[in-house]
Amino acid sequence: MSELTTTYEWSTIPWRKLERTVFKLQKQIYQAACRGQRAKVRRLQRLLIRSWAARVLAVRRVTQDNAGRKTAGIDGLKSLPPKQRLHLAQRLQHHWEKASPTRRVWIAKPGNLEEQRPLNIPTLEDRARQTLFKLALEPQWEAKFEPNSFGFRPGRSCQDAMVAIYSKICHQPKWVLDADLAKCFDTIAQQPLLEKLNASPWVTRQIRAWLRAGVIDHFQYSETPEGVPQGGPLTPCTMLQTIFIRVRHR
Predict the structure, then answer these.
(1) pLDDT, tens digit, for every residue of 173-220?
(2) pTM summary value
(3) Quick one: three-class SS letters along the chain?
């Protein structure tokens, strides 16, 4: 059968070894991005996305590690038994540039139970594939983000942002802007965002497929010609939106 089912059972996969393998590739992507070596960045990203280590780690994150795994997409799947996790990791090698519609669920806004905001939940396979792409794209953009940007970034917390703010304002008065843009991410123009992503054509096509896959809300399908959905590993308030904020800031 596949490389996954013949080599390991899920319980015997050497996770730390695979994590080191993926981290090594991510570090190389980051370093190449810092040096402006775009061709090398794209080659390493392709290598990571197609690697067994990254595929299996992506599946583990969405089926075991992620707290959001308790919410299902239109496939109704919240998790998978070990053998099916291996098969899903194998499927991530194929079916490129396809995406299923997301399932919209409504949750109360923090601090205001009367208002609700939408989450668009991808299928389990799309979540795993988005996690896989995030592993490859995140180090490239970490090399480009401003040091004073803290939102939705790995290894950064609210406490880090507070320390940075304090260090800026403790010496002299500063202006502070507290803004909440209504429906900001629901109206993002997708094409300019994809252009700023500056990824390989096949990566861009896959992300475009996710952005335009549509959404099912109360059994009604709607197209998504604009906006960035919130609720998946790659297209929530995470990397794509942080990229958008960086572009708007510039």
Answers:
(1) 777 777 776 777 778 888 888 888 888 999 999 999 999 999 999 999
(2) 0.83
(3) CCHHHHHCCHHHCCHHHHHHHHHHHHHHHHHHHHCCCHHHHHHHHHHHHCCHHHHHHHHHHHHHHCHHHHCCCCCCCCCCCHHHHHHHHHHCCCCCCCCCCEEEEEEEECCEEEEEEEEEECCHHHHHHHHHHHHHHHHHHHCCCCCCCCCCCCCCCHHHHHHHHHHHHCCCCCCCCCCCCCCCCCCCCHHHHHHHHCCCHHHHHHHHHHHCCCEEECCEEECCCCCCCCCCCCCCCCHHHHHHHHHHHC
